[in-house]
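R.M. (postdoc): so does anyone remember the format we settled on? I'll just put the structure tokens first.
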């Protein structure tokens, strides 16, 4: 150490004046900065090109192989993440704060539920290339724990449905993007709200094929519905994006590390939504002796659910509530085609929670995993396009064409 400092001091003394030393240091700094930028960019580009292959898990039936062959993005088998969004947290920040939100002029409609509550539907316009017919296929999109039809990721999903020629509708669960009608909240153990909503849409367009796209918790709910209804599911197929699969497992993941940041953000959204619907909830809060201050001061999801959800739904054990809300319990019973897309670097729904064994045993499900993509974002290229919606829409488009072809053949026979 002493030799190093002696050498460093001798080097400084060798300069005739301070300006000479300043020039030397500036040149060195610029050179180091240039090397840092070059090597940094090379690393980021390498990261975006490394491990880009899609990984498929599915029962190798003829139908599944044909689906992959006929869907361009799946057949290509590659997802390249935007090189400067090399971390899932960067993707989340970019998606929430920077990514431009498309303008969609929704038309709102309400579905009255049997318990006196309601759910709002936001219908996207129909592309002028397609005719507005009664049998036009319908895409039903369901949001995650946070956000609704006006969230950025939901608008992008609706925009892609519009481009592919679907009549697109976004479901907003109770109290999301619209005031609650009564003080009853969504019970994620039950599929009753979804069943009534999809039945309403089917009655509105009885000649149309219905398709689903669930994002995050929305994917869990739609997959759970499909597993519970089995052959009676009104959806012809669905796409599951960043599905939690195991809600209890996700809650455990969100306690530590990077998950903690997401946990705080989700909780903040819960509290914000609670405040928006406070007037409608007030009577139920008093009835169940719920302290609103404890809800507002909640630090994480389980804290919020212990003080609010547990009491309002008369739950004995919140952990059991999470387990009963998970779609992994019914994956084996799914009878409709499902494309599930997950990222290995998803900090909210990590790959260890995916029920791969049950998926491999069910010939109706194709699981596609990417190395990167984060949670629901999947930005690609320097233009930061949301890649995930392309394979999703290609898949639904292909399944619909096959159904139409089969129907035409049957009508001829």
């Amino acid at each position: 150490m002493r030799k190093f400092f002696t050498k460093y001091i001798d080097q400084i003394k060798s300069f005739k004046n301070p300006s000479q030393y300043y020039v030397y240091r500036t040149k060195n700094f610029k050179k180091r900065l240039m090397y840092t930028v070059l090597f940094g960019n090379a690393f980021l580009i390498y990261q975006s090109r490394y491990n880009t292959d899609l990984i498929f898990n599915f029962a190798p039936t003829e139908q599944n192989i044909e689906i992959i062959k006929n869907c361009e993005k799946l057949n290509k088998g590659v997802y390249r993440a935007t090189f400067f969004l090399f971390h899932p947290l960067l993707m989340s920040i970019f998606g929430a704060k920077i990514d431009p939100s498309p303008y969609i002029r929704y038309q709102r409609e309400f579905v009255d539920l049997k318990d006196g509550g309601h759910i709002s539907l936001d219908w996207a316009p129909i592309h002028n290339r397609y005719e507005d017919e009664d049998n036009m296929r319908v895409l039903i999109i369901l949001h995650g724990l946070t956000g609704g039809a006006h969230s950025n990721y939901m608008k992008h999903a609706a925009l892609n449905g519009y481009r592919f020629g679907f009549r697109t509708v976004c479901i907003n669960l109770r109290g999301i993007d619209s005031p609650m009608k009564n003080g009853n909240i969504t019970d994620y153990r039950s599929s009753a709200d979804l069943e009534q909503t999809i039945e309403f849409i089917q009655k509105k367009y009885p000649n149309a094929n219905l398709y689903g796209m669930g994002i995050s918790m929305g994917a869990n709910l739609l997959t759970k519905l499909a597993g519970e209804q089995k052959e009676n599911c009104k959806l012809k197929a669905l796409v599951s994006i960043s599905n939690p699969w195991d809600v209890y497992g996700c809650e455990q993941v969100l306690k530590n590390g990077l998950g903690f940041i997401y946990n705080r953000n989700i909780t903040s959204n819960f509290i914000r939504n609670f405040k928006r619907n406070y007037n409608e909830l007030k009577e139920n809060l008093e009835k169940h002796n719920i302290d609103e201050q404890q809800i507002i001061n909640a630090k994480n999801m389980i804290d919020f659910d212990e003080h609010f959800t547990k009491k309002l739904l008369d739950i004995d054990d919140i952990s059991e509530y999470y387990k009963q809300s998970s779609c992994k319990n019914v994956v084996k019973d799914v009878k409709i085609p499902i494309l599930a897309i997950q990222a290995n670097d998803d900090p909210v729904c990590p790959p260890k929670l995916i029920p791969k064994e049950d998926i491999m045993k069910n010939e109706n499900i194709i699981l596609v995993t990417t190395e990167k993509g984060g949670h629901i974002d999947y930005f690609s290229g320097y233009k930061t396009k949301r890649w995930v919606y392309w394979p999703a829409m290609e898949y639904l488009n292909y399944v619909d064409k096959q159904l139409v072809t089969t129907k035409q053949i049957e009508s001829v026979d």
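R.M.: ...and that's the designed sequence above, right after the tokens. Also worth knowing: The radius of gyration is 25 Å. Residues 247-325 form one domain.
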